[in-house]
Amino acid sequence: MILNLSGMADIPEVSGDFTTVHVSLVRAVSADPSQWSNPDTLVTVELEVSDGEAYEFGGAFSASGGIHTDKSGVEMPTTAVRFTYPRVMRHVKGTITVTNGPLVSTLTLAVD
Amino acid sequence: MAWVQGIGVQGIVVASVTTGSLTTTTGNCLAFGAGCSPDAGGDLTSVTDSKSNTWAVTPATPVVGTTGVNKQYMYTAAAGSRGASHTFTATLAATGYVNINVGEFSGRAPTSVVDTDAGLKETLTGGGSNFSGPTFSPQAGSDGFMADTDRSSVNPATATPSGGWTLGTAQVDGGSGTAGHSQYKANLSAGSQGVPWQLNSSNVEGLQIVVALKAATGFTIAPTQGALAFTGQQPNVLNSSRPVPGVASLALTGLTVAMNLTMPTSVGSASFTGFAPSISVVSGRTITPASGSLTFTGVAAKQGFTNTPTVGTASWIGLQPNVSLNTAGGSLTPNQADMAFVGYAVSQTLTLPPLLEADMAFVGYAPSLGGQALSIPTPATLAFAGYAPLVQFPTGVGSLSWQGQAVALTNTMGTTQGPLAFTGFAPTLSGSGLTIPATLSFTGFAPKVVGQAILTPGTGTLTFNGNPLGLSYINPPTGSLSFTGLAPTFTNSSSRPATPRHYMQRFPVGTDGTVQCVDVTRAVAPFVFWNEVKVDTNGMMMIVVDGLPTGWDDGLQVNAAECIVITRTPIAPMDWTNGLQLDSRGFLCVTDNPTLPVFNMQGMQFDVNGYLVVTIS
């Protein structure tokens, strides 16, 4: 899901039997500073999951943009969050909210 | 009581992460393991949850990695708010790495839940993959929960507990982030022990914190749909809420719990074996088995009981409960259910409405039935074994039986199609209109009939087996009437036969061959009724006056009533030793000669009416 976004947008539903949801957002690195480069751009992702019944809260995270390095000085190309659930879920969808955008990035949602 | 569930989340280059939601249970303990990498962003600034619980850190300081890049924290919330949509959040001071592993435990102490804790930074070297974990010394019965943060060199990082520990949650992205996991072990043994586990990586540093969560000495039973059973010493239930079995079963075996019991509409069963509870029913409350069963075995409960229309079963074995119905309008209505009382019967107001299909039985002491009417259940049975109740009998078609002390039938028993049986003592029948149902049988003592009672078998069968019946009057039945054993005695004048008028003269033959006059009070004639009529050694019938037939001056006459009497006219014959003969004319006469009739002037003839007459010449 390629983003050029300000404000809020829906994350389309993904279905399948899963206990884990992976969400990643491409970040800025020196080689490509066009992606989510502004450190003031705050992204909040909220998920909803369903085991076949009503949707329930599936987790959330927030992160800021800019180039980020780990302890070894390696630039991290993505923000990645892995949600685990105590039972099998079948549907996941969500919303992404951008503050101080616009946000230029690519969002990936996967389940397993 | 142990591990309930867990949930986790792992974030790489994030400022905060929040788990998905759990439905947690009131009274359960929560343990919250959180790991982070401060050098890659901010340190952990807070852990929170959506229920605004207070989280206590344990131990006071985190386990820190060799280079300070990683930290592992542990928090607990022994009690507090629980429920649906329960989420857990870790917030960093700045963008960095974080993992959360949360576990829920039941049966833990509501306060001071931490028995002990221990932290360990453990580095695998030389290609090893086995962590021994922090060493700790819990008390027996505690549950162990360990959370770790490690920077594995592989992705996914796979943690495998051993030594009786079980994987709780796992955050596996070790290749590019901060992996971690949690594991738990219920009901720990006392004494020093480790927390063993393996990782599919080597030369890695694991930051581990284990916490031992103390078992509760008291606990809360929340509403449940499952089965709840207590065997042996029962708990004291101290909470203000009432245990509600709902659709499940609630069984208490042994000493019974003291509790407030509310049984709403339920299809489950509730049973008490042993001492039953004291049930305090407030006004308007009822115990309604509905389609389930409610059973008290042993000492019964004191309760208010209203069994509304139901298809369930209510039974008491042993001492019966005191049933306190409402002062007006209360009823005990088994309806389609069976209701049995064994032992001491209940004091109650009993209404058995028509169209019942259930059986109702009392074994032992029967209840005092003070209602206006006792309707015999229609196709069902009502049985009393032992002391019978005092009742009235309106119409019914069901069977009704008594074993033991019988009921006094003082009122009309309406037409019934069902059998009525008395085994043991028969009832006393009085009143003016007792209509016997289809089958009325008495096995044992027959009933005593007093007054003007009328026994009308109708079209059925009236049977008496055993001691005789003192009947006043039996209307001609169209059914069968039989007596087995001694015959009945008719004592009422209304039952006397119309003829003969002098039936009281009875002449039974004694053991000595004599025919004796009895019932002297009814004698009219002859006046010498005290004499005896004997048969002498010659086969002659004779009248004996004062022992021997001497001085007989009376003769046999026919009086105005056409009866043979003794006359005081001493004409002939004089020799009473002679026999009665027929003379040559065919007259009966007295003779001294047994061959010929020498005294033929006193002949006996038959008149034109065929009566025997005595002719005195």
Explain what you see.
The complex is a heterodimer of chains A (112) and B (617). Chain A is mostly beta strands. Helix content of chain A is 0%, strand content 69%. Chain A has no helices and four strands. Chain A has a four-stranded antiparallel β-sheet with strand order 1-4-2-3, with no helix packed on it. In chain A, a hairpin with a 5-residue loop joins strand 2 and strand 3. Chain B is mainly β and 617 residues long. In chain B, the strands form eleven sheets. Chain B has a 13-stranded parallel β-sheet, with no helix packed on it. In chain B, strands 1, 2, 3, 4, 5, 6 and 7 form a seven-stranded antiparallel β-sheet that branches. In chain B, strands 8-15-10-13-12 form a five-stranded antiparallel β-sheet, with no helix packed on it. Chain B is globular. Chain B starts with a strand and ends with a strand. At the A-B interface, strand 2, strand 3 and strand 4 of A face strand 1, strand 7 and strand 12 of B.
Structure summary:
The complex is a heterodimer of chains A (112) and B (617). With 112 residues, chain A is mainly beta. Chain A contains no helices and four strands.
Key words describing this protein structure:
A: 112 residues; mainly beta; 0% helix; 69% strand; globular; B: 617 residues; 13-stranded parallel beta sheet; 7-stranded antiparallel beta sheet; 36% strand
Topology of helices and strands:
The complex is a heterodimer of chains A (112) and B (617).
Chain A: E1 2-26, E2 42-50, E3 56-64, E4 78-111
Antiparallel strand pairs in A: 1-4, 2-3, 2-4
Chain B: E1 3-18, E2 29-37, E3 44-49, E4 56-57, E5 63-64, E6 71-77, E7 88-105, E8 114-123, E9 130-131, E10 143-150, E11 159-161, E12 166-171, E13 179-185, E14 197-199, E15 205-213, E16 228-231, E17 250-254, E18 270-274, E19 293-297, E20 313-317, E21 339-343, E22 360-365, E23 381-387, E24 399-404, E25 419-424, E26 428-429, E27 434-435, E28 439-444, E29 448-449, E30 455-456, E31 461-466, E32 470-471, E33 480-485, E34 489-490, E35 532-535, E36 541-544, E37 555-558, E38 564-567, E39 579-582, E40 588-591, E41 604-606, E42 612-614
Parallel strand pairs in B: 16-17, 17-18, 18-19, 19-20, 20-21, 21-22, 22-23, 23-24, 24-25, 25-28, 26-29, 27-30, 28-31, 31-33, 32-34
Antiparallel strand pairs in B: 1-7, 2-6, 2-7, 3-7, 4-6, 5-6, 8-15, 9-14, 10-13, 10-15, 11-14, 12-13, 35-36, 37-38, 39-40, 41-42
